[in-house]
Task: inverse folding
């Protein structure tokens, strides 16, 4: 049992800063259960993907290495779900142990408020939320890009076909450049039947470029057998033929490959990529609302780790007979299920109108925060 006198917090009011030995002790108690939850929930997701790997190899005759690579590339996306769940289970188990062995009671008897006791756990929850947000914006999009490439080039063996791929690049002065391609040959990083239209700030065409193909030559594209039509201010047109023309279309092959299988699924995109789609003007009104709702939800969703930490504290302090880790695991699954059902409902509501996107995205977090704060306040009075 923790020695309150040894921690040096027998005074009626414990300092909030700087961090104390008690803070380090509580965070260390959270570490083990959090890693256990991270491992347990990850293994559950891994188990669900084993059949998918087997189906790719047996039914679609995909190389085993490609199926495994696609599985590994999908792991960052699963971690976004696993991390908040691990924080929930870790906090539940840590608080059950501290409460069950009367360590929380000892700290309260030493004059330390419950809010001060759980403060380091909430700070950890906030830090983990920020890490999840960084993972979502920096790592997951790159993994999804590569996964789309592997899916098309290696597993599905897609040949160049009509895909109507587009890329929009803003130009200095308020203009824009629109690139349209019939297809992308992912094996050679080559766009087929390419058309580029450059508009000025008044949305009037300035240049019209057509080419048989364009091959990616980082960081730009090399257009083969191109014809450029330039529209002069006086209404005349000049024509220029070229065997090789270097053009920056603003997107990499992986990003373009992702369009053909994920353009209708904003969940596979980062917030920056969703913002580009929203600003491009290419989306239909229903797609505009869906993308706006997902854009807001992707900012709110990682903070589920903080919300789960808050709500797990009072649940973990409840005195129960028997159950132990199994009870904590079951309670964590139940809370996660309710949270994501509510999140799905509000995501649908946010897709009704763009102005609803932000409030609907944050509503589940706000609701669970209010519930967690109310339960924590009630627990502090017991």
Result:
């Amino acid at each position: 049992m923790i020695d309150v006198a040894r921690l040096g917090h027998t005074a009626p009011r414990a300092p909030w800063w700087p961090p104390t030995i008690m803070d380090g002790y509580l965070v260390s108690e959270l570490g083990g259960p959090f890693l256990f939850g991270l491992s347990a929930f990850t293994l559950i997701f891994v188990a669900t993907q084993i059949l998918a790997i087997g189906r790719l190899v047996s039914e679609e005759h995909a190389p085993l290495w490609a199926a495994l690579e696609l599985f590994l590339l999908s792991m960052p996306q699963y971690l976004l779900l696993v991390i908040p769940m691990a924080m929930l289970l870790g906090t539940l188990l840590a608080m059950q142990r501290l409460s069950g062995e009367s360590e929380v009671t000892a700290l309260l008897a030493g004059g330390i408020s419950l809010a001060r006791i759980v403060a380091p756990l909430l700070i950890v929850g906030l830090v983990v939320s920020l890490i999840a947000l960084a993972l979502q914006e920096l790592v997951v999009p790159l993994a999804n890009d590569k996964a789309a490439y592997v899916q098309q080039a290696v597993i599905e063996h897609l040949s160049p076909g009509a895909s109507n791929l587009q890329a929009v690049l803003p130009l200095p002065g308020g203009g824009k450049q629109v690139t349209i391609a019939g297809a992308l040959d992912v094996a050679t990083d080559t766009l087929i039947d390419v058309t580029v239209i450059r508009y000025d700030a008044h949305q009037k065409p300035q240049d019209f470029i057509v080419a048989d193909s364009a091959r990616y030559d980082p960081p730009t594209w090399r257009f083969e057998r191109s014809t450029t039509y330039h529209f002069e201010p006086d209404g005349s047109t000049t024509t220029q033929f070229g065997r090789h023309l270097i053009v920056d279309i603003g997107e990499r092959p992986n990003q373009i490959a992702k369009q053909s299988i994920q353009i209708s699924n904003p969940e596979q995109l980062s917030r920056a990529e969703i913002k580009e789609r929203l600003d491009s003007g290419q989306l239909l009104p229903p797609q505009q609302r869906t993308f706006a709702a997902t854009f807001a939800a992707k900012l709110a969703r990682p903070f589920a780790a903080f919300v789960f930490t808050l709500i797990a504290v009072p649940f973990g302090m409840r005195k129960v007979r028997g159950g132990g880790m199994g009870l904590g695991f079951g309670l964590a699954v139940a809370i996660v299920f309710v949270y994501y059902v509510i999140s799905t409902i509000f995501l649908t509501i946010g897709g009704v109108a763009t102005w609803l996107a932000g409030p609907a995205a944050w509503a589940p977090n706000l609701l669970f925060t209010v519930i967690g704060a109310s339960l924590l306040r009630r627990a502090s009075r017991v």
